[in-house]
Design a protein that fits this description.
Blueprint (H helix, E strand, L loop, with lengths): L5 H4 L1 H19 L2 H11 L3 H6 L1 H8 L9 H17 L1 H15 L1
Length: 103
């Protein structure tokens, strides 16, 4: 493991935090009407889960709507710690399962 770079050792964490930041940036740049449309599409409501379960589940994982500055920090702490303890693949599986079960 000594030869692995910090990026490959924590690839899932880096990827999640990067996509979360991109989702937040997209949300910030939208108009209020656009934000409402995006959040409606990404909502994990019963209606959306019946018609587009995969899309709404994936999108909702990357679109926090409040405390936008805090989520990347919290996600980084959790994801880097999980990657340290579990590795990349197990972290991805645990996070995906937790998101689905939590929804």
């Amino acid at each position: 493991m000594a030869g692995r770079s910090l990026f490959t050792r924590y690839a899932v964490a880096w990827l999640y935090v990067a996509v979360l930041c991109a989702g937040e940036l997209a949300y910030i740049l939208l108009t209020p009407g656009g934000r409402g449309t995006l959040l409606g599409w990404a909502s994990t409501s019963v209606h959306n889960l019946q018609h587009d379960p995969a899309g709404s589940l994936v999108a909702s994982a990357f679109l926090p709507t409040s405390y936008l500055w805090a989520w990347p920090i919290l996600a980084a702490v959790a994801m880097f710690g999980a990657c340290q303890a579990l590795g990349n693949w197990r972290t991805a599986v645990v996070c995906a399962a937790g998101h689905v079960v939590g929804t």
